[in-house]
Specification:
Strand content: under 5%
CATH class of one domain: Mainly Alpha
Low-confidence stretches: 1-9
CATH topology of one domain: MetI-like fold
Structural class: mainly alpha
Helix content: over 70%
CATH architecture of one domain: Orthogonal Bundle
Radius of gyration: 32 Å
Oligomer: single chain
Length: 365
Amino acid sequence: MTTKNNDEKLTFKELVAAYKNEAKESYNTFRDNLRRPLTRAVYAQRISGVAGSLLRAFIIFGLSFIILYPIFQEVIVAIKDPIDLNNPLVVWIPEHFSLVNIQISAELLDYWNALKNNIKISAFTAVLQVASTSLAGYAFARLRFKGSDLVFWIVMLTLLVPPQTTTLARALYFSHFDVFGIFKALTGEALSLKGEGKDVILYMMAIFGQGIRAALFVFLFKQFFRGIPVELEESAQIDGAGVVRTFWSVMLPNARGCITTVSLFAFVWQWNDSFYVSQYGLSGEAFPLLTMRLLNVAEWVRNVLMSPQFKHLYYLVGEEVGSNPMFTKSITNTSAFLVMLPLLIGYLFVQRLFIEGVERSGIVG
């Protein structure tokens, strides 16, 4: 028995010695290789590649955290029970889960009615923006005429004009809308397009190239159409296609990525718009819109809590729950999350086309 243990100890020592010798040989080989300029260059290239990958991963992780942190925070706030508001131990994971914040926010926003109105306005506006700006972009890219470059740069300069400078003129125009005096001749007065639910103003602005950031969309389509080979148009012209047929049958089908990009931008910007909506008085109790309701959430919190449905919250957070700034902030954050939730869901379905359109439409590169 003793002999067997000694043999095992000797074998273990020999194994350790073998590992030491192997490590020493590897170190000597590495040291000898470093003395060769070519080997040093290879090692330096590998080290720089690894360092670059680590730096790139660190930057991507940091940017992702900065972008996603507010969203994660709003999700946590949305499912947190009001009883955890004054608990200093609750930071990320709530001790009590509840949908009370979501219920209150949905009632404040009149969520389903406002969601329906937002989708309708944003979708129609996006379609009209694509129609008008794609035509203008194609004209600037392919239909060259005298002074076309000057006209294009004038269009681009409209991006620098603050919308507030044209607010008064537009308000007066839409308050007394008339076409060659026709309405006044027929009815005795001009037609007023301003007022609650009269979203035709936004559609008119979109179809005539006056929508939100329309000049930017013209630029994107121009850059995209310039990248399409001219041979495709020449082949269509040989087959007898005119300008309109070429645009509709050749150019637009190849601009799917750019159309997706412009549609998404137009939809999101119209979804988040509160300037034009408030300026023309489109939103109200009979025609709610999410962005306008969101602006008043903090003021409405106490009024909603006075209703019998939410009276139990007074006993969870305190008698003055409506004036509690932490509770008001949590309801505001939850409402903001509900407003942007449809956009996040929609982006998941179009992200591939969106990235393709960004790469090919001139935003980068």
